[in-house]
Amino acid sequence: MKYSNDNEQKCNIAIFASGTGSNFINIYNHILDGKIFANINILISNNPNCKAIEFAKKNKINYKIINKFRLSNNENIEKVIGKVLIKNNINLIVLAGYMKKIPKQIIELYPRKILNIHPALLPKFGGKGFYGIKVHEAVINSGEKSTGITIHFVDNDYDTGDIIYQKEVDVLENDSAVSLSKRVLELEHKSYPVVVKEFCDKYRKELN
After folding, report:
1. What's the number of CA atoms in the CB half-sphere (13 Å) around residue 13?
2. For residues 92 and 74, what is the distance between their CA atoms, to the nearest angstrom?
3. pTM
4. Which of 108, 120, 196 is nearest to 156 (CA)?
């Protein structure tokens, strides 16, 4: 099916973020520069005070704060998230430091259309409790000579979805968890937009 309006061919992305949202901001800038043919239709966060929300407000990006404290007695998080995604015609979900587990109902609604980036070479240093600086501390304490990033599809467990992309970085002798985290984050910023672009290009190709 062909569309005459280029905007209709853009992949509609929902970003899920809980913290600084540096990967969210990076992907947004790639879209703004025309490097990724997509729209960020909505930012979903559980944290009303995070920097990702601040960025969304400043740049007039739609956002929705969804957590158990904001739900009425007859609502549940799965249904609320699902309604928001459907309302915004979402084709791809990109997790960018989202600190909550994605509900099973949402995974079933978007099979192999939910991406996550993890700051280690899965299956090493993955699973519940391995996030942020804790991952890098574990890498340093293990004596590993290399670490890296993993971009994967999200399934019903933590960090166990099919791997899409991995990239290594050396662990230096004088590395601390903080210094290592900075180099891994640089790798995230280089790699995540590439994978998102590939998904969006594939989506556009399938429409034509």
Report:
1. 25
2. 28
3. 0.93
4. 108
How far is 65 from 72, CA to CA, in rounded Å?
14
Angstrom distance (rounded) from CA 202 to CA 38:
12
Measured in Å, how far apart are the chain's first and last C-alpha atoms? 5
| Residue labelled with tokens 């899920």 | 16
Are β-strands 114-118 and 146-153 bridged in parallel, bridged antiparallel, or unpaired? Answer: antiparallel
pLDDT in tens, the chain (208 residues): 233 345 568 999 999 999 999 999 999 999 999 999 999 999 999 999 999 999 999 999 999 999 877 665 656 889 999 999 999 999 999 999 999 999 999 999 999 999 999 999 999 999 999 999 999 999 999 999 999 999 999 999 999 999 999 999 999 999 999 999 999 999 999 999 999 999 999 998 888 7
Q: Are 103 and 133 in contact (CB under 8 A)?
A: no
| Candidate list 30, 118, 136, 189, residue with the active-site label | 118
Which letter does DSSP use for residue 171 in this model? P
The yes-or-no answer on residue 118 being catalytic is yes
Instruction: Look at the alpha carbons of 63, 69, 72, 77 in this order and tell me if their dihedral is positive or negative.
Output: positive
Helices (H), 18-169: 22-32, 51-58, 77-87, 104-109, 133-142
